[in-house]
Amino acid sequence: MVVLNRIYTRTGDDGSTALGTGERRPKHDLRIAAYGTVDETNAAVGVARVHMADEPEIDAMLGRIQNDLFDLGADLAVPDRDGKAERLRVLSTQVERLEREIDQLNERLAPLTSFVLPGGKPGAAYLHLARTICRRAERVMVELAAKPEERITPAAVHYVNRLSDFLFVASRAVNNDGAGDVLWVPGQNR
Description:
This protein is mainly alpha-helical and about 190 residues long. About 55% of the residues lie in helices and about 5% in strands.
């Protein structure tokens, strides 16, 4: 259980922040950017959920995802080091659940004939916003993982990759199973 008795500590006033290990890093550190962008993704998912009153099944999926995103943030906040006790890590079972939910939602969608523009119902548009933030989180995580001194759980990268796919498919499901998608018309405004 997490207990937060005090919200401000003044320890970050010098431009640094603590990882879950207690190690201090500059706030512009790539690891901090990674879990900060995961937090942004979670906030965008939360905004999308405000518009899911007519989609209880998708809302429940998004609720599980929000919890997973906190797991992912915790995973990133504690670097994977040899010889250290394991902390909370994203697991392949979480990735597999996302894949099952993607398949479940995708079964009811018509095949795409064009790229989809963010839009349609408000919930779908916000899911697209969450998807783009998630893609940014993935790029930062992959950049971090490319550094020899920084290790990331492979399932964590798999999770954000799958999550962006889920958010795309869910946006189409919210848009009347794709019937309300706004499709790109190449060169329409020439």
